[in-house]
Amino acid sequence: MNNNSLLADSVVDSAAVESASPAVGRSQWSTRLAFILAATGSAVGLGNIWKFPYITGENGGGAFVLLYLGCIALIGIPLLMAEILIGRRGKHSPPYAMKALAAEAGVSSRWQLVGWVGVITGFMLLSFYLVVAGWAVAYIFNAGSGAFTGASGDEIGGMFGALIGDPWVTTLWGTLVLAITAAIVIKGVKRGLERAVGIMMPGLLLILLLLVGYAMTTGQFARGFEFMFSPDFSKLTGTSVLVALGHAFFSLSLAGGGMMTYGSYLPKRVSLGKTVMTIGLLDTLVALIAGLAIFPIVFANGLEPGAGPGLIFVTLPLAFGQMPLGQWVGVLFFVMLSFAALTSAISLLEPAVSWLTEKRGFSRLKAGVLTSAGIWLLSLGSVFSFNIWAEHKLFGKNFFEVLDYLTSGWIMPLSGLAMAIFTGWIMSRAATHDEVGDGPGYRSWRFLVRYIVPVGILAIFLNAIGVLG
Ligand code: TRP
Known about the structure:
By secondary structure, this protein is mainly α. The chain has helices at residues 3-11, 14-20, 32-43, 46-58, 62-90, 94-105, 112-144, 153-165, 167-186, 189-216, 221-229, 240-251, 258-263, 272-300, 311-322, 326-360, 364-384, 399-426, 429-436, 440-464.
């Protein structure tokens, strides 16, 4: 019997059913590889290449990398499975997918709140994500113009300051990123998303390998390797675990609606376990390789690995300015960063667009333009955080930092907890088993998602707010 049409016809509200005509007519990825590229494209982003190296640097290297790997394996990957599973079984945009599965499980339709939070989180994330993505695109041109060649640290710091300090220029770059993202999303799953990731992901991987190859020639590769892989636990700070968990969520694109929506386009015949492992592995590999490309260059130039968010916008350009062929290495690096950011940005816009087309029957064009307009307005707050609103702070954080903190620090872990409880305890064993299939993989997943994930998130959380001391 066809489960999906049964679900959709009986439980999803009639407006949604009419306009979305679920099961039949819903777009699907053409191949398993297309889905893997899209989901890996979502996962691999600024988080891997910008954030992971600098938080590893700030948290002392190897020991932090181990913590992070633990969070990915025990919490991140099981949740990635949970989120994609919800999407595939629910066959709708996140709110309706949750609603359908809540009905299947015979629980309150309020569970759709988890779907809503996903869509809204994606919206909020994209509003500041596109600002940093805009810096990355601007830097392709900075690097290409030769502006870094022979420049001093102060000069390069000054260039970065001038870029983010100029609300007009940053708005312009951010708008460009959003426009490209929207154009891809509006074209739809096959003609937009699949094509874009089909070009950008192989490009990204190729450039990344070229850059590691280059890093091997700097003579400091071993030192970079050691920094990342020999753990010194005394270097961890009190917040390192929380940072590692928050980053595992961010990097795997959990709880932002994107993976759920991508899952809803995934055909039933594709094996979830292998696919999810592949995505988690690729995301982790890219982060580690990005570190291996960046730290040797940092050490070879006598720079500081703990430089913070400026690591790739100030420290690394300084190195590009000193090294042979640095102008080209710089261009390649920022092209790679822009590809990574764009393939993630589309997964942040897709949930809202998918929801509007279902809910209101809007065309993708109309839904894409409307959501982008809203995101653009909100993004101004993040643009202004570095210039005209720089002095306006809430608890010592500017608008950009407040959004980042609210999403990664609170909303995403909490909705991860909700997804774990939902797939582990609310959905029937038969339902999740039907999605995941038989085998030891299913049993380990179910154990992790029922016990380890909720307990892990709660412990890290209570610790962060000081309850556990
Ligand atoms: N994973 C992406 C990165 O590392 C960011 C991202 C895309 C994301 N979609 C998301 C984060 C959904 C959270 C939720 O850059």
